[in-house]
Amino acid sequence: MPKTLLLLFSMLLFVAACQDKDALIPPPSKNYSQSATTQQEDFLYELSIAKPTFTVGEPIKITAKLTYVGPAQNVTIYHGGSPFRFNLQETTRNFEIPSAMDTPLITRILERNVPYEEFYTSGGGYNEFSEPKLVEFMKQTMKGHFPKGHYIVKGSTDFYTENPNEQKTEYKPSATIEFYVQ
């Protein structure tokens, strides 16, 4: 009997070791939607994705929009290379895909009720101390190829306005959405 138990236990270990390493089970969703909107004073920030599930190799289209809804015809905003940040977290492997930002000061005029929009472009990064799995993952995402998994997108804006007395008012609305790659 002990030999039979030992044989069964050995077979179980062998089967577990041979499991597909890419067959990752995503954690349960926090029920983020495909679109989220936040308002901060006279500005609406919207983060959206084309659909909730993509296949490996399919382009991921994430859109951020900023709309001025205040009383004036237009407003001037000041920001870095983009007013938008896209930080992604792949929850299956627990990898962060950070958003890089150029830091020139850009001036942009937003017309009332006319959205300014940008699309997510591939991001990520690693260094010589990063684990090999992270390096391979980042190489794929930096080319716009997302591996199978569950992704949470934490989008935000970062800009300011000035009044005639040159007093700055900072704005940092944010929103969160999610998607899957199968």
State the strand order across the main sheet. 3-13-10-6-7
CATH superfamily: ApaG domain
Q: What's the rounded overall pLDDT mean?
A: 84
* Main sheet makeup: 5 strands, mixed
Distance between the termini: 43 Å
Radius of gyration: 22 Å
Helix content: 10-25%
What CATH architecture would you give? Answer: Sandwich
Q: Which regions contain 5 or more consecutive residues with pLDDT less than 50? A: 1-26
Task: Please report the first level of CATH classification, the CATH class.
Answer: Mainly Beta
Shape: globular
Keywords: Signal
Signal peptide: 1-19
Write a concise keyword list for the protein shown above.
4-stranded antiparallel beta sheet, signal, mainly beta, 182 residues, Immunoglobulin-like, 13 strands, disordered N terminus, 5-stranded mixed beta sheet, 15% helix, globular, 2 helices
What would a concise description of this structure say?
The protein is mostly beta strands.
Secondary structure layout plus pairing:
Layout: H1 2-17, E1 35-40, E2 43-49, E3 53-54, E4 62-68, E5 74-79, E6 84-90, E7 95-97, E8 106-111, E9 116-119, H2 132-142, E10 149-157, E11 159-162, E12 168-171, E13 174-181
Parallel strand pairs: 3-13
Antiparallel strand pairs: 1-2, 2-4, 4-9, 5-8, 6-7, 6-10, 10-13, 11-12
